Amino acid sequence: MSGILYGVGLGPGDPELMTLRAHRLIAAAKVVAYPALAGGASFARSIAADVIAKGATEIVMDVPMTVERAPAQAAYDLGAAQISEALERGDDVVCLCEGDPFFYGSFMYLFARLSGRFETQIVPGVTSITTCAAAARMPLAARNERLTVLPGPLPEAELRARIEGAESVAIMKVGRHLAKIRGVIEGLGLMGRAVYVERASLPEEVVCPLAEAPENAPYFSMILLTKGADPWL
Amino acid sequence: MSGILYGVGLGPGDPELMTLRAHRLIAAAKVVAYPALAGGASFARSIAADVIAKGATEIVMDVPMTVERAPAQAAYDLGAAQISEALERGDDVVCLCEGDPFFYGSFMYLFARLSGRFETQIVPGVTSITTCAAAARMPLAARNERLTVLPGPLPEAELRARIEGAESVAIMKVGRHLAKIRGVIEGLGLMGRAVYVERASLPEEVVCPLAEAPENAPYFSMILLTKGADPWL
């Protein structure tokens, strides 16, 4: 009998923001799999480091960060083949996913390759957007407000149009797009309502008004913006 | 010295989707507080029931479900006064919040009343939207896709306009607005792409194509809709 594939959300980075189920599955896993920046560290593994059992087999997918999709997809092909082998010999495989597996997560590439052939279970995790809202002490959405989640790499004109039509906004993957996004928000006269959050929940977390954000934002940074009346009243 | 106020996300309903931090804080709490439907049960308390310490003091806020805001706000006034007393005598108070405290959560009303006077910490939780995506086996957003979160009570014309301009959509608080929402999605020719999820992560969870959704949807139901190309490839 084949093993079960688990896509397990680890939350935003603080290991204590892992769910009880994620903790149980990881601690019991004989095989774990996770992506790493080609040749570099794995953020997912670092979150789960203290929970992974001694002697567990680790399948590392070295994913290159290129604009073209083919090299990354080749890495998932290779990872899926290794995971298949483990599942076929009857071992469960726990895939470690930063945040939530289906919220801008790379687990969907493994899901696409493997869920037709193997039993697959998804364990949701705490996302970076609510973690950033907690860090910024800023309710994300109240009552009948709309929330729009926008990836920072979107073109400037599209970002402007989407922010203009939105109420609450979370802009993910800010990184090297910070200057562009700041320009858009400044142009809309919304700087006073925008908060910058970097590495939410980690010891090196940064929270500040967007106007005071550092020049160089890491990939794991976000801008939150609310336009409604004070949502607390 | 005053106690600390904790706004603790409990996740979507399955107690195992609580974070390790939520579990630790609730288990150690001498005072917990939570909303309940006036005269009825508390969903938040039911999620945490097995973790609350024996002998803990429980502050229950009976919140009436009325369209007018004043009666609910009066309930939070009363709750805030009781929580203040506990904090002032030096006890920490753990507020139990379904899902995430700052994602359509009522904790923001307590935060508005108390965070100026007492140290307040927010613990994010797993939201219903990624839990529904996991239940539906449907990645919510990939790569540079936009995600729009819409409350079901929005007027029909606004829902139509927002869904038309969106890529991935999560419609929350479907409940008695199901027929209206279904009409909008049908009108846009998107029925084939919409999934209905009810009570995600609970034993009575329902997942089905929107076309097959039951007539009477509970408050805790959601519709997910993706319009992009297959996001898995």
UniProtKB/TrEMBL annotation, chains A, B:
It holds the Pfam family TP_methylase. Residues 5-211 form the Tetrapyrrole methylase domain. GO terms for molecular function: precorrin-2 C20-methyltransferase activity. GO terms for biological process: cobalamin biosynthetic process; methylation. Keywords: Cobalamin biosynthesis, Methyltransferase, S-adenosyl-L-methionine, Transferase. Pathway: Cofactor biosynthesis; adenosylcobalamin biosynthesis. CDD domains: Precorrin_2_C20_MT. Belongs to the precorrin methyltransferase family. This is Precorrin-2 C(20)-methyltransferase.
